[in-house]
Structure formats: structure tokens, C-alpha cells
Amino acid sequence: MRAAHLEEALHAVHESEERYRRLLETVTNYVYTVRVEDGRAVETTHGEGCVRLTGYTAEEYAADPLLWYRMVHEEDRAAVLEQAARLLRGESAPALEHRILHKDGSERWVRNTPVIRRDAFGRVAFYDGILQDITGAKNMEEAARHASLHDALTGLANRHLLMDRLSRTIESARRDGVKVAVLFLDLDNFKPVNDRLGHAVGDEVLKEAAARVLAQVRASDTVARVGGDEFVVVLPGQMGGAGAAEVSRKIIRALGQPYASLGGAQGPGGSVGISLYPDDGQDPWELVKMADQAMYYVKNHIRSSFAFHSSLVRQAGLEPHDS
Asked: Which domains does the chain have, with CATH numbers?
């Protein structure tokens, strides 16, 4: 009698598994199933949707048992393995969003939702991974994040991203015992360009100026647009002021060249004020403020040049530096 009941229970489990399988195939384009014995994965099968999502066929997965692992983005493999380990132990595991590399070399984002199936004795017999392509949603999410941290016109960092990076740079400089230079740049005579030629041309001049500033710095530096024609440059890893002075000269020279957006005419130059961490302050806002003050000193004395805030404090009336 017990054997009959057990056979009936097993039959019910098999029917339930088949209904479950058919249901999964209707709600997702890719389901893989891992067969488990004694807490170990012994076989993996891949549903028909694997080709649409990954470019690989079920036969290719069967011929190469480690293909699924190599397909996972290198930076996400540890998280995927941890998810699998929890399932093999019979523990619940939340859905995991990770990247895979399609057969054509493109990168895709997927949501990997695992579901454990147990046998009549409550042991883990299988687990199914439901893979959904969320690349589009991730791209939209990244675009929104980028827009929230960057200037829409020039593509440079905005004020929020600037202060975040400057804070992190100061923390790193504090640990390493080095300086940080903050350059506050304002374009000279930009308002007449807007007034005479209109905002459309003015926007093109701003984009050209932004590209020129960006071309004078390292990849590790930060360039941000913080106002209409105001920019801030952060130079980490400085030993003194010599590097900031050289970058300022390069920026001023670059801004003084003819502008394609003005038909080859000379456009606005730039005036730069410089502050140094820790000489002029410990706080990001304070350093930007000190650099801004030095820039205004330059604007009121000799434009298209630069000055250090600390020099102005030590020597009242010190002339700015010619470019």
C-alpha cells in the first residue's frame, strides 16, 4: 500500500513538473534547468529561447558544459556562482541582474530568477533559471543616470558629479599625502557673443570651448561645467602648484585659438583661478570658492591669465600670470 501511495506521489510530482515546464516556456524566452543530485549540479539543459537571448544553441551548451560560465561577464561571475551555491544548498536566492556576452560579442543584461523544485522527499531535485533580457531597461537606466550627472550641452560633469568626485579625490589625497588642484575657469567676453550672434551660436562656442579644456587634461582629471560659461577642473595627485600652472597655461592658450563655431574668428579666451588642497582649504565647497575668488581677481586685473588663491592672500595685489 505504501509503495502504491509513493508511486502515486511521484507521478503527481512528474505531472506537476511538466505543467510547470510548459508554463515557464510561455512566460519567458529562456529557461534553463539544472538537475541536482546530493547537492551537486549533474546536468544542465537549456530551453529553446537560449538562441534568441545568447546566440548559442542548446546543442552548443550540451557540447561545452562550461559555456554558460564563460558567457557570464567576468565581473559578474562571482555573484552568479554564489547564487548557484545557495540553490544547491536548498536556500532561496533572489533574482540576480548580471551581464552576459552574446555569441556576436555584444553585451546583454539579464535578470536571472531561480526557482527550486524538490522531490517527494523535500530534497532539491532541480532548479530552473528564468532569464529575461533587460538590456533595454538597463540602457534607459544608465542614460537617466548619466543625464543626472552630466551637463546636457557639453557632456561634461555637472556640479553634483563634480562635488562627488572632488570629495573622493580629497579623501584619497589625505591618505596619500598629496595635493589637489582646483581650477575655476570663466570665459572672457562670452556675453557679447551671445548678445551679437544669438544663443545657438553661443552654445556651439561653449561646446567647442569645453572640448578644448577637456583636451588639455588627463583621463584621471575632472572637467565640469558649473554655470553658463564657467568650468571647474580638478587635478588629483599634485605635489605642488607647478602642474596646475602648466595646465592653466595650456587651457588659456587653447581657448585663445580661432573658433570654428565663429567662422574662424578669435573667440572668448579664459581666466583661471586656482586653489590647492590642503593649502587653501579642506572642504570641496571651500576649495571651489577659493578658486572662484582667485578667478575674479584675474578677471578684474589681466584677463586670459591665472592666479593662485594662496599667492593672492600672501601678497595683496600680486599680479596674475600671463598665459
From this structure: 2-140 (3.30.450.20), 150-322 (3.30.70.270)
